[in-house]
């Protein structure tokens, strides 16, 4: 039970009494990690440890994943083995088969949904829930000689602090497979779209998982590190070479990873190119777009990213600053200043503050009017800062007839202590929250047009690659 309950608990011979007289509403500590949302909770469990749950569930999955002697699954496994020589390729083929050929259907049964359907039954009826798909995948992997185990996880994101809770199966809402190939662990989720191969990390960033083993396993904490690739990149190319008064040709590309990217894959995969084009023409033409000429979408399996590109024309919102001068705020180029991390006096001041993991990147390239010169252009300052566990980065460059900007933001620490929060509260006044303004002055003589670090244009590099320059090589304090 939580401390707010233990302080009022009265232990009797056969019961525990909790007596409240018009109790006040409890408010979770502001901006604290999710585990501190746990308030006024009493739990009971018949399990003395997590190993007991692991031992109980392991034979359910082990028995259900044993195909019959004449099972057609054996033929499927033989077909996969004949087509693929490497164990990882075989595991990937087995996963794709489960993802693609067996529909996902949730089987709730009023909470009594703990025993998985057998592998043969699931393969015969071609549908199943996460347990059924996991069992089917385990059966195929066993036939292929790939070591694998079922693992209970929590998809709802409420597993922070799970190690402080009483052992209970209800703490999990999903099960998937962890395979071992050539000494490396891979996560395989049969409920995800068939574009998701075995991965060194699960698609959802679990904190605590429970492997199901005959001997019984303890909760296992998965390590966390700042994202190595942005979960979203937004690219804008504005071709304004025709002049300030003419519509520009605009190319807008978004690259989404993770669950958001998969949601887009599910949404767009069934649509034809003509249907996509029609939908965007009907819904997107307005402030940004005057015309939409083309819409292209694909899911890049290697990059594990959904890539949507819209091509068309639109008016550029140049500000007329007088005397022939113009200015433009680039989309996505500014940062809002972070809020102070403070709590009410009655809340625990020593608790850490929480940052939801995120890594975003905006890249904008403006192809400058052909009648202008590079020295007539200027831009706002670059940014390289870190505050409250988040890195902020912005860089400009004027090169090859274009003005380029990249702006990135990444969570470096999920939790920051009260001391660091207090320090950064005092630094907020110094935060550069300027929009990404670029300016043209026909009389300007800007000689400082060379960036300290070359900023690539939207079309110069592969922005789905692992090493895109969305952050400084060394982040400021």
From TrEMBL:
The keyword DNA repair does not apply. InterPro entries: Papain-like_cys_pep_sf (IPR038765), Transglutaminase-like (IPR002931). One of its GO terms (molecular function) is peptidase activity. SUPFAM superfamilies: Cysteine proteinases. GO terms for biological process: proteolysis. Residues 77-181 form the Transglutaminase-like domain. Keywords: Hydrolase, Protease. This is Transglutaminase-like putative cysteine protease.
């Amino acid at each position: 039970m939580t401390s707010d309950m233990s302080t009022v608990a009265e232990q009797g011979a056969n019961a525990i009494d909790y007596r409240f007289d018009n109790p006040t509403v409890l408010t979770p500590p502001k901006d604290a990690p999710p585990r501190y949302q746990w308030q006024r909770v009493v739990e009971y469990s018949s399990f003395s440890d997590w190993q007991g749950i692991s031992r109980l569930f392991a034979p359910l999955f082990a028995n259900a994943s044993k195909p019959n002697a004449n099972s057609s699954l054996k033929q499927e496994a033989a077909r996969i083995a004949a087509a693929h020589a490497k164990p990882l390729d075989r595991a990937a083929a087995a996963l794709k088969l489960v993802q693609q050929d067996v529909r996902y259907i949730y089987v709730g049964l009023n909470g009594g949904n703990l025993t998985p359907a057998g592998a043969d039954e699931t393969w015969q009826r071609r549908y199943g829930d996460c347990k059924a798909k996991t069992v089917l995948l385990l059966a195929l992997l066993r036939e292929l000689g790939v070591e694998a185990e079922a693992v209970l996880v929590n998809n709802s994101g409420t597993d922070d602090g799970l190690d402080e809770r009483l052992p209970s199966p209800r703490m999990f809402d999903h099960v998937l497979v962890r395979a071992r190939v050539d000494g490396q662990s891979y996560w395989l989720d049969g409920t995800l779209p068939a574009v998701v191969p075995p991965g060194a990390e699960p698609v959802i960033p679990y904190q605590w998982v429970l492997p199901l083993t005959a001997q019984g396993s303890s909760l296992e904490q998965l390590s966390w590190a700042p994202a190595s690739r942005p979960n979203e990149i937004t690219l804008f190319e504005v071709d304004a070479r025709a002049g300030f008064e003419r519509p520009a040709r605009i190319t807008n590309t978004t690259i989404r990873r993770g669950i958001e990217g998969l949601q887009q894959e599910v949404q767009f995969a069934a649509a034809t190119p003509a249907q996509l084009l029609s939908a965007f023409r009907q819904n997107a033409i307005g402030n940004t777009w005057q015309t939409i000429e083309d819409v292209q979408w694909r899911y890049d399996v290697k990059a594990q990213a959904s890539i949507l590109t819209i091509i068309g024309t639109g008016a550029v919102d140049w500000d007329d600053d007088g005397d022939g001068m113009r200015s433009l705020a680039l989309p996505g180029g500014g940062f809002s200043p972070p809020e102070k991390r403070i709590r009410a006096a009655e809340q625990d001041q020593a608790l850490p503050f929480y940052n939801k993991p995120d890594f975003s990147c905006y890249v904008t390239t403006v192809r400058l009017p052909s009648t202008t010169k590079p020295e007539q252009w200027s831009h706002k300052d670059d940014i390289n800062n870190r505050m409250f566990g988040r890195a902020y980065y912005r860089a400009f460059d004027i090169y090859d007839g274009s003005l380029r900007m990249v702006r990135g933001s990444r969570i470096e620490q999920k939790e920051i202590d009260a001391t660091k929060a207090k320090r950064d509260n005092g630094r907020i006044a110094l935060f550069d929250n300027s929009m990404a303004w670029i300016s043209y002055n026909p009389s300007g003589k800007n000689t400082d047009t060379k960036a300290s670090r070359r900023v690539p244009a939207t079309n110069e590099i592969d922005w789905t690659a692992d090493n895109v320059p969305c952050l400084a090589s060394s982040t400021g304090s």
